[in-house]
Write a structure and sequence with these properties.
Layout lengths: L2 E6 L3 H16 L10 E7 L3 E3 L13 E3 L1 H7 L2 E4 L1 E6 L4 E5 L5 E5 L2 E4 L3 E3 L7 H4 L6 H13 L11 E5 L3 H18 L6 E5 L14 H11 L2 E3 L4 E5 L2 E4 L4 E3 L2 E4 L3 E3 L16 E2 L5 E2 L2 E6 L4 E2 L13 H20 L12 E5 L5 E5 L4 E6 H14 L8 H6 L12
Parallel strand pairs: 1-2, 1-9, 2-5, 9-21, 11-12, 11-17, 12-13, 19-22
Antiparallel strand pairs: 3-4, 6-7, 7-8, 10-18, 14-15, 15-16, 20-21, 23-24, 24-25
Helix pairs in contact: 1-7, 5-6
């Protein structure tokens, strides 16, 4: 009798869940009869991993990794479609394929890795006129818009970009945007990048550690800031802020906040303020032992230090390794392994200024500038990419949950 491990989502957590499950199953084929009957199924709109951490960069269309060959080489079954319903009682998910036809996919163990989405508050004009880099299509739309600016008459509005939100993504985007604008409009163009945030501090969630470096980078790059400022309206030619002041700009980019996808609401269980499902150390949903949750959909304890996972591929990748292993271990009747990630580091891109690398949950600055930029380039260009499909045994080996080396993103 076939047993299905169904994985929802082809983000970092979903891909690594699938590889980890296949790794454990493959290792038991010769000594456990149940292994031959377990199928790993991943469902996603496209057979590709979108490298979301890179979508703030220019040419975002290049930041996708095709998964067809990797899945074929490692024995992962891919179903192209979008999951629009989860039936916990029926133990199945409803899939809408690219033609609009629906089907039902049963599961014995479900790994929910549907990810997160940008929060869009009900600000007049936000949906119609603000750009974002939350998904690949949105980042490509922004890129096309920016490239199109050079065909428009020079004006203050054309030359101004407003970035809304001074968190991780907003800071990376704003510091990247200075050089990006000049490469499009010319070095002599009188460009302006304005970073607007409701918060009173730059990168409030990043803490005090890297803030002086971020401030220096913004000053060096000429990025202006308006902190403690709310956006009350957006249109095609600018924004209105809480004081009633209007700022002219043809480009407004919204980065302020993310939450778990709406699909998460269909699964009952305790959730945090971001809508993420709270799971135990095995990444299992306490209210339903057949469901594991990983990546941005999960709020998981990272160890014995009182911290929970963050919406970051630094956490999504090892969470995927653990969730895939544990879902397969359940069906193979072997011990599970707890998700444990005591080390936390971050590397924030600061455009031409460089980057800043921090260690620890208190985010102690280790290095900044050009040296940190090289580390960020390695992260973005190498470490977040999946293994090559030409060596499936190495790809599966890399999915071992014991491989929990220190990584920064």
């Amino acid at each position: 009798m076939t047993h299905n491990i169904v994985i929802v989502g082809a983000g970092f957590a979903g891909v690594w869940s699938a590889l980890s499950a296949r790794r454990l199953i493959s290792s038991h084929v010769n000594n456990n009869p149940a292994a031959a009957d377990i199928q790993v199924i991943l469902i996603a709109p496209e057979p590709q991993l979108v490298l979301r951490p890179r979508l703030y960069e220019a040419s975002p269309e290049n930041f996708v990794y095709p998964l067809t060959d990797l899945f074929s080489a490692t024995g992962i079954h891919f179903i192209q479609g979008t999951v629009d319903a989860v039936s916990v009682e029926g133990r199945n998910v409803t899939v809408v394929n690219p033609t609009g036809a629906t089907s039902t996919q049963p599961y014995d163990r479900l790994i929910f890795a549907a990810g997160s989405c940008l929060v869009r508050p009900p600000i007049p004009g936000l949906d119609e006129h603000a750009f974002n880099v939350d998904q690949l299509s949105a980042a490509v739309k922004l890129e096309n818009h920016l490239q199109g600016l050079k065909s428009k008459p020079s004006s203050k509005a054309r030359n101004t970009v407003i970035v809304c939100g001074a968190g991780f993504t907003g800071i990376e985007l704003a510091t990247e945007m200075t050089a990006r604008l000049q490469s499009i409009l010319g070095k002599d163009a009188d460009t302006k990048v304005l970073l607007v945030s409701r918060g009173e501090e730059l990168g409030e969630t990043l803490g005090q550690g890297p803030r002086p470096v971020i401030s220096r980078a913004l000053r060096k790059l000429g990025v202006e800031t308006k902190l403690g400022t709310t956006i009350t309206a957006v249109d095609a030619h600018g924004v209105t802020i809480g004081t009633g002041e209007r700022i002219e700009a043809m480009t407004t980019i919204w980065t302020a906040g993310v939450a778990a996808t709406q699909l998460s609401k269909q699964i009952s269980g305790e959730k945090d303020a971001l809508g993420r499902l709270r799971v135990d150390q095995d990444l299992r949903l306490p209210s339903n032992k057949e469901i594991f949750v990983a990546g941005d959909s999960a709020c998981a304890p990272t160890g014995d230090h009182g911290h929970n996972s963050l919406m970051s591929c630094q956490h999504a990748i090892p969470m995927g390794r653990a969730a895939g292993y544990n879902a397969a271990a359940d069906l193979l009747n072997v011990p599970t392994v707890p998700y444990y990630q005591p080390i936390y580091s971050t590397c924030l891109d600061l455009g031409p200024y460089g980057a800043v690398l921090t260690h620890g949950w208190e985010r102690r600055v280790v290095v900044s500038g050009a040296v940190a930029k090289k580390i960020k380039a390695y992260i973005n260009g190498t470490s977040i990419y999946p293994p090559e499909p030409t060596q499936p045994s190495k790809a599966l080996a890399a999915a071992n949950p014991a491989v929990n080396e220190e990584a920064v993103y």
